[in-house]
């Protein structure tokens, strides 16, 4: 198995609930609907007691990378969220089968409070 360009698991130490909400609140409009939705799915999945610990470690790593202000491509640059999206997609793909309908509902409901006229069918990530 090849080594990932970035080992997102190394970023778990940067995850915190407060840091997540601060980052997501500050960048929601700039980052866009799909990035925010992916982050919210992972956040709410991390709070689900039925998610295996190994999956939670991956989620915390990806969200830690997302929160980190200085990463591969700084967020303030054009296209600065591409690397964050990569981290979120990597985690989502690895834990997708364990994300429950309740987690989807929580993420969608929160997303709807920031973006008007969002339709679930427009949120397909894969």
Plain-language structure description:
The protein is mainly alpha-helical and 126 residues long. 57% of the residues lie in helices and 0% in strands. The protein is built from 5 helices and no strands. The chain has helices at residues 17-31, 33-46, 53-67, 82-95, 101-114. Helix 1 crosses helix 3 and helix 2 crosses helix 3 (53-67). The chain is globular. The chain starts with 16 loop residues before the first helix and ends in a 12-residue tail after the last helix. Mean pLDDT is 83; it is low at 1-5.
The quaternary state of the protein chains shown equals single chain
Mean pLDDT: 83
The major β-sheet equals: none
Runs in which pLDDT lies below 50 for 5 or more consecutive residues are 1-5
Q: Report the count of strand segments.
A: 0
- Helical coverage, percent range: 55-70%
Q: What is the straight-line distance between the termini? A: 23 Å
Number of helices: 5
Judging from the principal axes of the Cα atoms, what is the shape? globular
- Class derived from helix and strand content: mainly alpha
Task: Specify Rg, calculated over alpha carbons.
Answer: 14 Å
Q: What percent strand?
A: under 5%
SSE string, helix = H, strand = E?
HHHHH
